[in-house]
Design goal:
- Belongs to the shaker potassium channel beta subunit family.
- The chain has twelve helices and ten strands.
- An eight-stranded parallel β-barrel has the order 3-4-5-6-7-8-9-10, surrounded by five helices. A two-stranded antiparallel sheet has the order 1-2.
- Strand 7, helix 5 and strand 8 form a beta-alpha-beta unit.
- Helix 1 crosses helix 2, helix 1 runs parallel beside helix 11 and helix 2 packs across helix 3.
Length: 346
């Protein structure tokens, strides 16, 4: 089902090819009328060459998985052409966390809601400090052995936690994770561009990055530095959103407005939307396997998919101009072998 207009990359050190743009249905988990427009979003995605669809048991406490399962059945698409992923959370689902007992039960419930025999990638949706990591990884391998998932990954794990996963797998002859799902966008760069670089180099780790538009803050709707009217209504993640707004715009409004309006002017010069520019910039990074986008209306997906055409416009000159606007490139780690201290004063 590959499309000539879409770009595809291998997901980490695996043979699984994914579209560089993917669709996540978090936003549909709290909207009672979401199932129909979520289907329309999926249809637009598939027509545009998107093959990767992400959800989680925690999105609406299973509602998002049910919607995704119903949409797949409604569309009648070939399951072999779709890459479906879900995530298991250590919180809000009982006291067993990511234990062997809980994961065994959880995967069956996920598959039942999705109406599928398997998922392509199963994530650990945050680290569970109360369960031995070796116990969790053992059951993830058992799930793969039983063909209920083909690959596994992590979400929001630290570099140290991911490295420990690989060490445990190497010591036990187990299948290691192939992917980390982390936040990455123009305002949040440290994780992907600095912290995870050794993991990319050593293990070939893939990334399925979330919030490439920073929850809409980079879409152009916040260029005056204010939250649009109605944005916080009926939003179950209002506290999380306000924290991000305060961090990236509210606490530095004058500087943020200058950056955002500069991005808008550059986008207009390139003949694209500000959202497309921000998405294309994320996808341009070769360490990004796919960028997960959401939507609250089907027409948003048209704009998102259009970002693919913008990638070719990101010349070295344009990327330099973006860097000048952002001013937040992470400093590389110090190489103490080449460090030269200041000479002593005489």
């Amino acid at each position: 089902m590959e499309s000539e207009s879409m770009e595809y990359r291998y997901l980490g050190n695996s043979g699984l090819k994914v579209s560089v743009l993917s669709f996540g249905n978090l936003t549909s988990s709290w909207d009672k009328g979401a199932e129909e427009w979520n289907f329309q979003c999926m249809d637009k995605c598939i027509r545009g060459g998107v093959n990767f669809f992400d959800t989680a048991e925690g999105y609406g406490l299973g509602v998002a998985e049910k919607i995704l399962g119903n949409n797949i059945k409604q569309g009648g698409w070939d399951r072999d052409d779709l890459i479906i992923t879900t995530k298991l959370s250590p919180v809000r689902f009982g006291i067993q966390g990511l234990s062997r007992k809980r994961i065994r039960q959880a995967i069956d419930h996920c598959l039942e809601r999705l109406q599928l025999d398997y998922v392509d990638v199963l994530y650990l949706h945050r680290f569970d400090p109360e369960v031995p990591l070796e116990e969790t990884i053992r059951i993830m391998n058992e799930i793969i052995d039983n063909d209920k998932a083909f690959y596994w990954g992590t979400s929001a794990f630290t570099p140290q936690q991911i490295s420990e996963c690989f060490t445990i797998c190497e010591n036990n002859g187990w299948i290691p994770p192939i992917v980390e799902q982390c936040e990455y966008h123009m305002f949040e760069r440290e994780i992907v561009e600095k912290d995870y670089v050794p993991l990319f180099d050593q293990y070939g780790l893939g990334t399925t990055v979330w919030s490439p538009l920073c929850g809409g803050l980079l879409s152009g709707k916040y260029n005056d530095g204010n939250i649009p009217a109605g944005r916080l209504e009926n939003n179950p993640f209002v506290n999380f959103f306000k924290q991000r707004y305060d961090k990236f715009i509210g606490s530095r409004k004058e500087e943020a407005v200058k950056t955002l309006t500069g991005l808008k002017a550059l986008a207009e010069e390139l003949g694209c939307s500000q959202s497309q520019l921000a998405l294309a910039w994320v996808i341009k990074n070769p360490d990004v396997s796919t960028a997960i986008v959401g939507a609250s209306a089907p027409h948003h997906m048209d704009d998102n998919i259009g970002a693919i055409e913008v990638i070719k416009k990101l010349t070295p000159e344009v990327l330099t101009r973006i860097e000048d606007l952002l001013g937040n490139r992470p400093a590389p780690s110090m190489n103490w072998r080449t460090f030269t201290p200041n000479p002593p004063r005489r």
